[in-house]
Amino acid sequence: MCGMRFPVLKQVLTDPDEFITNSQLKTLSLELLALIPMPGIEGSSLDSGDIMEVVLRAAVGTTSINGVTTHTDKTPNREPVMDWLHTLEKEPVLEAVNDILATLAMSVLDRGGSRTICIDFMNNPYHGEPENDEDELRRMAPRDGTTQCHCYCTAFVIACGKPLTLAIEPVDGDDSKADAVERVLARVETYPFEVERILIDREAYAGKLIGVLRETAPPIFPVKTGKDSLREKLSVNASYMTEETICEGKQYEQTYPLAVNVTYQNGDRGKSGVKTTGYAAYGLEDRTPAQVASVYDKRSQIEKSYEKFREARAMTTAPSPEIRLFYVGVGFLLEQLWLVVQWAVLAQPQRGGRALPVGFTFDDSFLHGIERELDDELGWKDRYQTNGVGLPAGCECGFG
Questions:
Q1: With left for phi above 0 and alpha for psi between -120 and 50, is residue 247 left, alpha or beta?
Q2: CB of 191 closer than 8 Å to CB of 110
């Protein structure tokens, strides 16, 4: 894990001015992105700084490189920018993104104690044919007109009232989710705090994956209900604790504590009646099912984090998995920077913690602030030349 290699960010976090400006937010963002290695093209008149400004503008505007270069006067053409991006290499990009995420997270996290870690799989929809022959794509439920996606395994910690991203790993089509989780947890284990427990969704309901999780910390997750014995245990009207076995008689057999939590939906979200949920509750055998459910509910903030991340993801039709990984990394880094600045610089100290600012939103304040600054610097076109003629003769009859 790297130390604080961001001089501007360090100054802002440790000795902030009375106000923070859009220009400073843009500078901070570019300072982070500058540490992502870009090999470059021999003989090119551009440098990585020129490229990163275009990428940052595409990210904050959720548009493409073409959308930026077409609508600006002071940026390179699309072709040289994309030529540069095609020099990206997967491992250096991945290491840099995880390194920067770790530095940002540890700038606001205590180094001692223990933490609850959330693991999740994020699908990035993909249209078209992959660039390489290797099986890099995975299948997902239909979304955005496709069932193909690039998949990423992520680790979060809920802190400062927000989910901080600790690590990210791509999951190729022929990659097992257990192996991806193992790689992510190996990154998490480099952090200077203990992992108390792990929260994950139903993806964990597989013997091999459960075993991987248990090597780091007790996992808690909802169970799948396909097994007859499990359906029978969930067909109740009162909560209770019991046990269940998965992969019985097979290599990855696991017997786990099962919390059967029964709640009554009185019109919540338009639903009513009894709701029964089973949780694998490793390490929580002495808790009630309601307490187990309460622990697991903390994981719900991840979806809000993904919503924010998608607001800072540049669009592309390029088949390159390296470019797509790069854009995903940029989105997570921008969200993480916003969270750190929000908590460290703008949240007001008070008894029991800090009061997060209401006005410093990710989209309207942070992203749009950077967008406005870049629009001025990159020469965003706000007028377009007309043909001076208008509608051909005979076509204007609809106006009366």
A1: left
A2: no
Four-residue CA torsion sign, 316, 176, 329, 362: positive
Burial class of residue 292, CB neighbours in 10 A (0-12, 13-18, 19+)? buried
Token duo for residue 12: 């802002």
What pLDDT, on a 0 to 100 scale, did the predictor assign at position 113?
83
Residue 202 maps to a domain: yes
Domain that holds residue 52: 7-375
Closest by CA position to 206, among listed 264, 173, 247: 247
Chain segment 329-383, per-residue pLDDT in tens: 999 999 999 999 999 999 988 887 888 888 899 999 999 999 999 999 999 988 8
Q: What is the pLDDT of residue 111?
A: 85
Residues near 83 by beta carbon (within 8 Å), at least 6 away in sequence: 41, 44
Count of the separate structural domains present in the chain:
1
Residue 323 buriedness (CB in 10 A; 0-12 / 13-18 / 19+): buried
Three-state DSSP class for residue 59:
helix
388 inside domain: no
3-state helix, strand, coil in the chain (%, to 5): 40, 20, 35
